[in-house]
Amino acid sequence: MPSSTDATVYTNAGYAELLKRLLPPDGPDPALLGPFVAMQMQAADRTLQFNQEWLRFTTDRITCDRALLANLANPGDPAAIAAAWSEFVSGAIDDYSALYRRLWGQVAEEMTAAVFDTQKQAQELFVTSLQVAGSGEKRHATPV
Each residue of 35-53: pLDDT tens digit? Predict the structure, then answer.
């Protein structure tokens, strides 16, 4: 039975072989670099979508804040000021709760999808690296 040291050496050798394929002197192996680039592009797309949504929300909220300030700039009836403030706070609470429900619901869905995508990509990468690392070597499930 192989020792844990043997497994570590084999694993480290596999990583070393993988790194050699990813970063050889004549350039990276597209078969292995592609999944890494795809994962990074997906993450960048998700980040961009999230940030665009946040920017839209922030723009709307600043517009609402400005409207409140315009209402408060002309002090008049205290009841009107209280009503403007109450309307502003109520709207802000509704806006923030809707935003967080939408964004975090979207993030949860995307994270679930990303986990499955990453597992699939990692599995494909692992299979490819094993094919390269063990191309001439035959391994058995039980010692022979």
Answer: 777 778 888 888 888 889 8
Q: Measuring CA to CA, which residue among 51, 50, 61 is closest to residue 91?
A: 61
DSSP class of residue 144? Answer: -
Query: Pseudo-torsion of CA 55, 59, 60, 63, nearest 10°?
Result: 170
Cβ(39)–Cβ(118) under 8 Å?
Answer: yes
3-state secondary structure 39-100: HHHHHHHHHHHHHHHHHHHHHHHHHHHHHHHHHHHCCCCHHHHHHHHHHHHHHHHHHHHHHH
The answer to whether 114 and 42 are in contact (CB under 8 A) is yes
Query: Residue 98: which residues within 8 A CB-CB, separation 6 or more?
Result: none
Angle among Cα 114, 118, 137 to the nearest 5 degrees reads: 170
The pTM of the full predicted model, rounded to 2 decimals, is 0.49
Task: Kindly report the length of the chain.
Answer: 144
Residue 141's SS3 state is coil
